[in-house]
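Weekly sync notes, structure subgroup
Attendees: PM, AL, DS (notes)

Item 1: joint prediction request from the bench team. They want all four components modeled as one assembly rather than separately. Inputs as received:
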Amino acid sequence: MDAPNPIVSALDRAGYRLTAPRLAVADLIATHDGHFTASDLADAARDRQLGISRATLFRALDLLIELGVVERLDLPSGEHAYVPCAPAHHHHVVCSRCGRTAEVGDAGLSGAVGEIERQSGFRIDAHRLELFGLCRHCLARTGVPS
Amino acid sequence: MDAPNPIVSALDRAGYRLTAPRLAVADLIATHDGHFTASDLADAARDRQLGISRATLFRALDLLIELGVVERLDLPSGEHAYVPCAPAHHHHVVCSRCGRTAEVGDAGLSGAVGEIERQSGFRIDAHRLELFGLCRHCLARTGVPS
DNA sequence: GGCTCAGATGAGACTCAGTCTCGACAAGTC
DNA sequence: GACTTGTCGAGACTGAGTCTCATCTGAGCC
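Output from the run, pasted for the record:
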């Protein structure tokens, strides 16, 4: 009955113990459609009476970020949000209305990064691109032409 | 003796009062070479015995962000930092070693954003690109070839 | 120069995300 | 079963940022 939760498999593959709190956190994250904040997760855990403490929640999140299956986003409001994702390098597009996220690949960004290296004289080691807008569903609902 | 501080002119242009605490904050920011955190600024204000309260500092920062002369960065460590900048749309390259920042223009990014719109089906309204690496000076100091 | 008042200020309490510590517990190994 | 080690919950703590409120002040007006 357990669907092959990618978070659980990542934990397993990395040799971490599959404890009840971790499985519960993985399940909570898997049920989220878009991004979520730490307190969303804490609320959900409380609603389901999972008995997971905040410290455990943050520990699990840290672990999942380290494994690359969850990523931390900084929303325009300054809030920190988390989003489940594939471990490969990619970027997130976040719907400002419903919170849905989509992962996108390079899309020509590495060319732009190369150009920025030339412009700035820096050697770029890492970058983070976050995009905000309206998803297909919200666009359709508002009737705004894309 | 007052150099034409761009932050001060922006405040003036926007019709905000040029009060002593605001001028002091503008001056503190202008003396910073790269990015700084709110607590850096608070420390600097305390060192210079400017008598600026934390609330005032945050209010001034908010104002300057609203005017577009200061921008908030999210460092890879999760810290919030601030960086003085021009009001036009641009991106920041941050030196991971010394904290120096450089502003870069579009550099072909808008093409990548268009491609991401096509890939994801989202309508992108805003994006934020932050780049981290080593600046010219730190590269020279470490002898790493760019 | 004096008056007025909206806007700005300082002080300090408050909130909230995230961290840390510590004793208890549980899983894995022998 | 004993031992080791990783993980747990509870709760105190930290620090960035916000909020409130009484007070002050800059700037326009007379």
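Discussion: The two ends of chain A are 40 Å apart (CA to CA).
Action: AL to compare against the crosslinking data before next sync.
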